[in-house]
Amino acid sequence: MSTQGLQPLLDEHAELEAALADPATHADAALARRLTRRYAQLSRVAEAHRRSRSAEDELATARELAAEDPDIRAELPGLEAAAREAAAHLEQLLVPRDPDDDRDAIVEVRAGEGGTESALFAAELVRMYERWAERRGWRTQLLDTTWADLGGVKAATLAVAAPEGAYGLLRHEGGVHRVQRVPVTESSGRTHTSAVGVLVHPEADEVEVDIDPADLRVDVFRSSGPGGQSVNTTDSAVRITHLPTGTVVSCQNEKSQLQNREQAMRVLRARLLADARAAAADAASQARAAQVRTVDRSERVRTYNFGENRVVDHRSGYKAYNLDQVLDGDLDPVVGSLVRMRTDEALAQQAEAGA
């Protein structure tokens, strides 16, 4: 097992533990949040190291006693397997991670090719993410919804928060999701293919993105619900345009204009942070390029085939015939296949670099 780089991480963990025990650290809320995120990440490494070392010590002791005790000798295969598993888990945690993995996430779902059918499936994807989050004990908040006919959505923005950070898993959802099924509006029973785009951003802290109020144009309008009907008698919905970049964010799900403005600013900060990271680093640019650029059916990352109850992820090769369960929030096996794929790729790159 390669544990290159382990000791500096353990040292940093000890330093962060001392820093977080100092009341002065918590006088700066943004600093405390940043250090707490990093400490939680390194705590997983420290605990995995402790378990791996404990398993190795137990195995070494058993090997010494096995020559004289048949009962202990019979336990050796199980102890060896446990030691290998603990070592492999530690090795996976040592793979370089996206620095934003421990952040909360902003998920944007946008209908694309397919008209009404695409909007209907976009609404189903939003529900899928909400149910997945609920299964994992995460918190969700629907920040904005632009409704379409028959209960579909043209666009929706979902904030997802988790103690261990939601972005590390949700970032695998970025891309074009293709659906194949007979639309409710199709009278001949012919299967159609539609596309929905998903964009995932790490949520930014207020102090991380410097936004000059003079660079913002704020428009207010009346909130609308399914079918376009007004759901509010006041101009509570907010649209914010960041003039230097042309980035436009709107929010209308809250009852007050102030609340919608606050939520719109959350989304704007997340988008600007993602754009800044992409411009600053090649790795971030590649990560963003892996997400949806145009909501075109040919750029799909995953296909949902209703006729066969089948879901296929085109990046990891994952395939299963439990589409109904996946749409009900059983996403762990699908996302897990992507985590394993990217971990294996990173381990292979490490091994190649160390060769």
Q: What descriptive keywords fit this protein?
A:
Alpha-Beta Plaits; single chain; three-stranded antiparallel β-sheet; 355 residues; alpha+beta; eight-stranded mixed β-sheet
Describe the secondary structure blueprint for this structure.
Elements: H1 6-20, H2 29-66, H3 70-93, E1 105-111, H4 115-136, E2 139-147, E3 153-161, H5 167-170, E4 175-181, E5 192-202, E6 216-221, E7 237-242, E8 247-251, H6 257-280, H7 282-289, E9 300-305, E10 310-313, E11 319-320, H8 323-327, H9 332-354
Parallel strand pairs: 4-9
Antiparallel strand pairs: 1-3, 1-5, 2-3, 4-5, 6-7, 7-8, 9-10, 10-11
Helix pairs in contact: 1-2, 2-3, 6-7
Mean pLDDT: 87
Largest sheet, in brief, is:
8 strands, mixed
Stated plainly, the CATH topology of the largest domain is called Alpha-Beta Plaits
The helix-strand sequence is HHHEHEEHEEEEEHHEEEHH
What is the number of strand segments? 11
Walkthrough of the structure:
- By secondary structure, the protein is α+β, with helices and mostly antiparallel strands.
- 46% of the residues lie in helices and 20% in strands.
- Strands 2-3-1-5-4-9-10-11 form an 8-stranded mixed beta sheet, with helices on both faces. Strands 6-7-8 form a 3-stranded antiparallel beta sheet, covered by helices on one side.
- The radius of gyration is 24 Å and the shape is globular.
- The mean pLDDT is 87.
Q: Summed up, what is this model?
A:
The protein has 355 residues and is an alpha+beta fold. It has 9 helices and 11 strands. The mean pLDDT is 87.
